[in-house]
Amino acid sequence: MLHESLALAERAKIMKIDEKAFRKMFPNLAKEMDEKQQRVGVSSVRSDVKAAEKASSKRFVNYMPDAIDFVRRCDNERQAGEIIGYLEKRKEINPDYAQRLRKQLKEKGLRSFGPKKEGGYYSKDGIV
User: Fold this and answer.
1) CB 16: neighbour CB atoms within 10 A?
2) Residue 86 pLDDT more than 70?
3) Is the pLDDT of residue 12 over 60?
4) Residue 24 scores a pLDDT above 80
């Protein structure tokens, strides 16, 4: 639906409809465009479906999770603290970075690192 709306908006530009007429014809779309919410970035366009699927399925190939990825899998702040300590002990993160992570955890909470990553996160929707 959004794609169709954007196509209409583009046609309006091509057809050189003035803004006032556009707003009258498409009031909800104009409002959504003003709010600039629910935007989706497009990083590439592929006309070959098989090539697009292949590129998409390799999104996490050779991806190495970082400290934030591990923290986002935690259920509570205690677990996150243990993860940070473990990564610091193994020298996978340096003490300064570990301290910054602990400070953020204490001051802003666990979900300040992002929403929880559930099991199977990297294999959802055929990715990987």
Assistant:
1) 6
2) yes
3) no
4) yes
The two structure tokens encoding residue 89: 């002990």
SS3 12: helix
Domain ranges of the chain: 2-41, 67-126
Any alpha helices (H) in the chain, and if so which ranges? 2-14, 19-25, 27-35, 49-57, 67-71, 77-89, 95-108
Burial zone of 73 (CB within 10 Å; 0-12 exposed, 13-18 middle, 19+ buried): middle
CA distance 31 to 107: 36
Nearest to 74 by CA among 122, 109, 123, 124: 109
From CA 33, how far away is CA 38, in angstroms rounded? 9
**CB–CB of 46/52 below 8 Å?**
yes
pLDDT tens column, 65-84: 889 999 999 999 999 999 99
